[in-house]
Amino acid sequence: MTPCQSILPITTEPPGDWYEFSFGEPATLTEGVLYAIVLHGYYHPYSPTIYWREDPSSPTYDRGYSCESTNSGGYWYKQTSDDNMFQTFMFIPGEKLTYGTLVITHPALLRIVQKRGEQLINGYDNLSSLDEEFFTRKVKLEVEGGDVIEAITIAGVSYRFLV
Asked: pTM score > 0.70 for this model?
């Protein structure tokens, strides 16, 4: 398999963003072989910094884990308690591939959860606060058919959408 190398400016602001890396030919994967996404971070006097969105609460992808190296890859330390988020898509030439954008609007959204099957795709919490007087009125999600979106307002009203 040919490695895919890209140099992209990435956001340093939470909650992060999605980036696309394309391979020149379809990847051929072999069962039982460990594959990796390797990133090099921004320089920082104490250590390089990587901004990668993760789910530290209860990782849903139990076959993956994150590793970090403090000596340029000489040794890798396994981090099994976090689920670093990524998606993979395969496009077959000649087939139609469609994505969609869903914008959820409400005067005061509190929480949004997007699931694909049992897998958590996006989760936003504490989007609005009466105490601190800030309100999130709109959340934009990239969705696929079959996704389930759950939205809760600051008043506790729940909405459930099936894409």
From this structure: no
